[in-house]
Amino acid sequence: MSMASSWIGGTAVKTDGAPHRIVNPATGDAVAEFALATPADVDAAVAVARAALRGWSTATPADRAAVLFKLAKLADENAEALVAEEVSQTGKPVRLAGEFDVPGSVDNIDFFAGAARHLEGKATAEYSPDHTSSIRREAIGVVATITPWNYPLQMAVWKVLPALAAGCSVVIKPAEITPLTTLTLARLATEAGLPDGVLNVVTGAGSDVGTALAGHAGVDLVTFTGSTAVGRRVMAAAAAHGHRTQLELGGKAPFVVFDDADLGAAIEGAVAASLINTGQDCTAATRAIVARPLYDDFVAGVGELMGKIVVGDPHDPDTDLGPLITTAHREKVAAMVARAPGEGGRVVTGGEAPDGPGSFYRPTLIADVDERSEIYRDEVFGPVLTVRSFTDDDDALRQANDTEYGLAASAWTRDVYRAGRASREINAGCVWINDHIPIISEMPHGGVGASGFGKDMSDYSFEEYLTIKHVMSDITAVAEKGWHRIIFTKR
Ligand code: NAD
Q1: Domain named Aldehyde dehydrogenase: which ranges (predicted)?
Q2: pTM here?
Q3: Considering the domain boundaries, does residue 311 fall inside one?
């Protein structure tokens, strides 16, 4: 079962770091074993990425697009294998991997293959009478990317594809507990014709390989998706070299239900949006803020529906909810839920782990939470929804914004003016109206505040990987330029 941990210079590489096992969190069984990468492998990967940069960045947009379209086709053809890997390493239900993670990734690859041929800029023109000015958009260079375990393939694709489309070369470090689909992506990219060294994967621990990559002198941009605490460490490491960063960090999304909302739709939406990926989703609904007149019915409805959720074998298409990523993470979630009643919360349903193997945890609803309580303020990253009531619209929006995070939010109302006010006044990278979770390749994803900065997906993310160069050409052909007389006069 021993496999290669990394993909460097167009081939699988067996590294010689510490022995490591990929574990299926639904069963506790080992899925794969390998030796982790080391900081020396990071040096090797950055060196080949640097060497490959010139060729790839000077390939025509059409040539880059052709390779990336081929990659989208190969990813689609290998969808079943990608789903199997994603399910076994994360424990996510096969319906989620098969209908969201993998097709969403294929669509994103396809989108960026097209984006490669759509470079935007200002018109070339004579903005001064003596010069022609033009804009060049150039690949930023070698990109270091660090990704989390919750959506391993999608998070890799969101970072790697705009970089490749822009002409950058990449070294990516996936979370060491979920590297399988990222390694497959790199292998398929090579099969699609991506030149060796343009996309490299180093699977190592955050503490050494992650640190080495984030603080590497030889990269030009560090893009990161993960927790706010680690993201800030990554930013500090990159800052030592003055390198640019792009950070997609944690979230604590509000889910605001006004008194004119369709209550049934809000209940369905709250259950789906809080339980997606077992709540291990940075945009998941975590703080339901509900108008006082609807509060009791909302709590009863969500509690009842959560009680019907099928928790179990992720490979079974009838399963709704898989396990949490590790038993250690389940302990963290369980401990936060256990502390909630001491801070005023009322556990309506869930709040326990089912018997048997695997790191499962039941869907959990906690009502009447205090706005200073840990369960309400801190990221739980589990199948846990908290609920509070509000008195009027000002109070609702104040509560929605009472968080350091600003990744995503939703407002549920049939009043167009309330919807408009919520979308203007809630501080978040995305505000949904009467829905919560959907994403689309054409539209950006990214937060404000403690949720980070910069965008994934859409043309906006393409911009992260391009520099803007101004070329200003003299059109007078005279040695003695008019402006020289400001500096000196000829005597
Ligand atoms: P994490 O921050 O623990 O780890 C993320 C990655 O960073 C992993 O690859 C890890 O090995 C690496 N890492 C750890 N320490 C490092 C260090 N010192 N230097 C460099 N790299 C290091 O996050 P996680 O537990 O894997 O993922 C969950 C977190 O990710 C949650 O906070 C979630 O909200 C966030 N997330 C955000 C988004 C978004 O788009 N904003 C998307 C998915 C997940």
Answers
A1: 19-471
A2: 0.97
A3: yes
